[in-house]
Amino acid sequence: MKLLTRSLVRHAHAIAREVGARVVLLHADVVEEDADLNALIEDVNFRIILVSRRCGFRPPDDYKDTCHVVQLPDIAMTRAGQVKVATLVAAAESLVHAGDRILCLTGVDRSGSLDTIMVLDMGTEIEMFSAGAADPLPPDVSPPVFERVLNVASELGVEGREGRPVGALFVVGDCERVLAQSHQLVFNPFHGYPEEQRNILDPRLEETIKEYSAIDGAYVIRGDGVVLCAARYLAPRGKLEEPLSQGLGTRHEAGATITVTTEAIAVCVSQSTGTVSIFKRGRLILDIQKPRGRNPDGL
Ligand SMILES: Nc1ncnc2c1ncn2[C@@H]1O[C@H](COP(=O)(O)OP(=O)(O)OP(=O)(O)O)[C@@H](O)[C@H]1O
């Protein structure tokens, strides 16, 4: 195990004990060997969440019952982005709760080394976990559906479509109220298809969803993953308590505002910046910036 990793882990254990962190979130993909991973997680009295982009990643055999796994979208993300997404997914899956203090260990993918320690407080991290994000999902939305939407949105934000940046807006959950405050801009391309053929959990739908991002308007997605419509113009009845930050235009405004009078969560991909913003109860609960520059895994 590299010197830096070993040193960070030693200090991380001490910090976690001193500050009363109950959860350790560890980006497992930066650790090269299973034996190293074993060494990192043995002798730890915390709840361990292993974060990985690798499909089908499993904890080492000895720790199967004590470690949870959170899957990240397989795209370049900043370290802060990795931590934000992992924490949100962990919260959606009820692996972390309001009041938890989380110690995060991360690093640059494929560097074989951890290089960053972060301590997060669920519920008081204003930027990330305000507005009840400790219980981040609407009651009718299943965690896999939210994770799938987050995945597709993150990929669209980073990769765009056929080399061009694209924007998109996904409104997930509380669909009756969302539909009542919106109308079709053009024909709904999902109309008439059986529900099992238009569920976002079906990987075959991914390309279709990305393709239709070129159409103006929002996707409305039921909590169980069925895509009810694309090209939906949102006409929310509510009003934002606070204006959105400068630079965010009508797509973000519509996404944020529909969450004021509904229980839905809105996931917005910015065409101009590639940032993915998540809104709930009229507030930005988390944004994931697209990595920039030559070091895409930088902070
Ligand atoms: N009320 C609405 N309902 C659904 N979609 C909307 C609504 N208003 C705008 N949009 C979508 O947002 C697009 C325009 O985005 P605009 O540039 O004004 O917003 P933005 O928040 O700055 O987003 P971006 O960062 O992607 O540019 C439209 O083409 C349309 O697809």
From TrEMBL:
Domain DAC: 130-290
GO molecular function, one term: diadenylate cyclase activity
Keywords: ATP-binding, Nucleotide-binding, Nucleotidyltransferase, Transferase
Catalytic activity reported: 2 ATP = 3',3'-c-di-AMP + 2 diphosphate
HAMAP family: DacZ
Protein name (database record): DAC domain-containing protein
Source species: Paludisphaera borealis
